[in-house]
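Box 3.1 A note on notation
Throughout this textbook, protein chains are presented in two layers. The first layer is the amino acid sequence; the second is a C-alpha cell string describing backbone geometry. Keep the layers aligned when reading.
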Amino acid sequence: MRMTSAHSAIWREWLWPRAISRARRGPCVRRWPPTATMCPCALPAGPQLQLALGQLELVRGDVAKANAALDRAIASQPARAELVNQAGTLLLQARQYEAALARFRKAAALGPNNASYWLYVGRAELALNQTTQAQESFEKSHQLKAQWIAPIAALTLIDVRAKKFDSALARVRQVLAKSPTDPNALVLNGDVLASAGKARDAAAAYADAQRQQPEASTAVKLFQLRRAAALPNPEEPLQQWLALRPHDYHVHTLLGDYFLVQQSLRQAAGEFETVVQQAPADVPALNNLAWTYLQLNDSRAQS
C-alpha cells in the first residue's frame, strides 16, 4: 500500500534524515534546499576524493562512472564498513536503491553489530518495497540500539502504511513511557496521529515537542496540519519559531506565501521584505515582494 503524498511528506524526515520538504502555494513556486549529501570530508584523502567523484557522477547521472569511483574508494580500505556505508548513502540519495542496498548489506556484513548499518539496509529495502525484509532489518537495528528513535520510527512507518495505527501508536507509547519529554518521540507521536486523521491530537503532540525542543521542521508540520484541518490561527507556530529564530528566511518565506493566499498583503509584504534583507539574491522573494507592492499600489513596486 502506498501513502498519499501528504502523508509521505510527514514521514520523509525519518527515512531521509535532515531532508526538508514542503508544499508551496503562491505566485512563485520554489523548493527548500535539497537534502544535504553525506560529506566524505572526515575520510583520508584517497577515499575522500573518490567518494566526491562518485557523488559528482551521480549528480551528472552517470551511474556506471559513479559506481567505479565508489569502488575505488572502498578498494583503498576494503574492510572499513563506514566507507562502504557512506558509498551506499550516496547511492540512496541518488535513488539508486538496488546499488545502495548492495553496499549497505556489505557494510552490515562487515559491522554486524552496528545499528546504523542495519537501519540503512532497511531503508533501501523499504524503498524497493521489500517490506518484510525491511521490517527484519529495522528490528535488528532496534535490537542493537533499543532506545534509538530511528528504527522505531521506521517500524512505525511500516505500521502506518498498513493502516495499523494502533500498533504504530503502541510503539510510540512504549518510548514515551520511558521518556515522556523526548521531543523526537513526541514528533513521531504527532506523525502517527496525523496519519490516522486525528488532527487535534497530532497538533497537541507537535506543540508538546515544540515546548521541549523548538525546531523549524516541527513548526512547519504544525502549521501545515493546522492549515489542512482548518484549525484556528495556523500561522502561529511559524510566528513562534521566528520569535526564536528571526533570521530563518525559509520560514519567513513560507509565512509570506501563506499571507499571500489569505490576501493579507501587508503582512505578506513584511515577510518578503525580511527575506530580501536576509537573502538579497532570492529571486522568488523579490518577485513576490514586487507583486505584493503592486497589489497594494505601493510605489516601491517599480524600484
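Residues 45-60 form the longest helix (16 residues). Residues 20 and 32 are 6 Å apart (CA to CA).
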